[in-house]
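User: structure tokens for this one?
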Amino acid sequence: MIKKFEPQSLDDVMNIWLKTNISAHSFVEKTYWENAFYMVKSLLPTSDLYIYQEEGVIKGFIGITDGAYIAGLFVSDRYQGKGIGQKLLDYCKCLYPILELDVFDENKDATRFYQKNGFSTNETKINKDFNCEEHHMIWSNK
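Assistant:
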């Protein structure tokens, strides 16, 4: 079931955030994510955050900022490939007429996932923090 984030779920959400970032971005030093943890933890509740939960277990979440920007879509490693990310994205497609995001070129699975879901790349640039290609992708129901 998808529902709005509640503050008591913050630790569970942050554990998914950290583990998923480390596994999905092997080209980024693990310490980067560990060092960003507390900053993200303070900022995360300020976004529109939706969690996917079954039997009391949070299995994934999506965060939307600025009314359209997907700041992150994360599914716990043990639940990936079960359609949870798809359900979270579809849910947000019903709420927001335009969605956009940035995805690293090296994260091929995520890039394919968003392309399959109707996102198109409108700009590719070099991410200055990591010196790698990053695609800015947009989806619109218009």
